[in-house]
């Protein structure tokens, strides 16, 4: 949350958005990043498990 709050002020100042709107944008971006990282992690685990099963 600290990073998001730290990014909200500069985003608000640069874009002319209100603080709450900028905070919403940062929050949405954080959620999308988290979901993407989790999806890539699961894909790597799945590929690794398939690769291990084929070599055994």
Describe this structure in words.
- There is one protein chain.
- Helix 1 packs across helix 2.
- The protein is mostly helical and 56 residues long.
- The protein has helices at 2-15, 19-55.
- It is rod-shaped.
- It is built from 2 helices and no strands.
Compose a concise summary of this entry.
By secondary structure, the protein is mainly alpha-helical. The protein has helices spanning 2-15, 19-55.
Shape: rod-shaped
Number of strands: 0
Summarize the amount of helix as a percent range: over 70%
Q: Helical region count?
A: 2
Structural class based on helices, strands and sheet pairing = mainly alpha
Low-confidence stretches: none
Beta content comes to under 5%
End-to-end separation in angstroms reads 44 Å
Mean pLDDT: 89
Secondary-structure element string: HH
Q: How many whole angstroms does the radius of gyration measure?
A: 18 Å
What about the largest sheet?
none
Which tags fit this structure?
single chain, 56 residues, mainly alpha, 2 helices, 0% strand
Topology:
Layout: H1 2-15, H2 19-55
